[in-house]
Amino acid sequence: MAERKVKYLISESESMIMEYLWKQEEGKTFGDITEYLNTTCQKDWKKQTINTFIKRLTEKGLLVSQNTVKKRVYYPAMNYTEYKQGEAKDFLGEFYGGSVKTFLSAFSGGGKLDEETANELKEMLEEM
Predict the structure, then answer these.
(1) Which residues on adjacent β-strands are paired with residue 65?
(2) Based on the number of CB atoms within 10 Å of its own CB, is 128 exposed (0-12), middle (13-18) or buried (19 or more)?
(3) Secondary structure of the chain in the HEC alphabet?
(4) How many beta carbons lie within 10 A of that of residue 37, not counting itself?
(5) CA dist., res. 89 & res. 105, Å (int)
(6) At a CB cut-off of 8 Å and minimum separation 6, what does 109 contact?
(7) pLDDT tens track, the chain, 128 positions
(8) What phi and psi values does residue 17 have, to the nearest 5 degrees?
(9) What is the pTM of this model?
């Protein structure tokens, strides 16, 4: 079976769910997620709305679930660092043809990078 491509572009609402789950040491139930969103985030979302966000995150490959004896438990499919790396690679691929050089050229406005930025990049490349 072919590996499904993860879709890293998420809405602000989906991001709230993922950020909550990334901070947890264990998976959370639908009830836990609902309570967090409606209490901590002060949202007044219906179950159907939250279920839609969870379904979208699952379809994007960012959320997985496991059925337990009594409830379904949701987990991030990857940690926050892996997500940010994938998001950056997707961004680079979509907008700059995967070229770091093209990105840096756009970033610098087509001019030279200042010395501090150039040195930071050199150090980073040497570490890699």
Answers:
(1) 74
(2) exposed
(3) CCCCCCCCCCCHHHHHHHHHHHCCCCCEEHHHHHHHHHHHCCCCCCHHHHHHHHHHHHHCCCEEEEECCCCEEEEECCCHHHHHHHHHHHHHHHHHCCCHHHHHHHHCCCCCCCHHHHHHHHHHHHHC
(4) 20
(5) 17
(6) none
(7) 445 688 998 999 999 999 999 999 999 999 999 999 999 999 999 999 999 999 999 999 999 999 988 899 999 999 999 999 999 999 898 889 988 888 888 878 877 778 898 888 889 888 87
(8) -65, -45
(9) 0.79
Q: Which two tokens stand for residue 81?
A: 């660092």
Tokens representing residue 52 in the block:
């839609």
Long-range contacts of 54-59 (CB under 8 A, 24+ apart): 54/17, 54/30, 56/14, 57/10, 57/14, 57/17, 57/18, 59/7
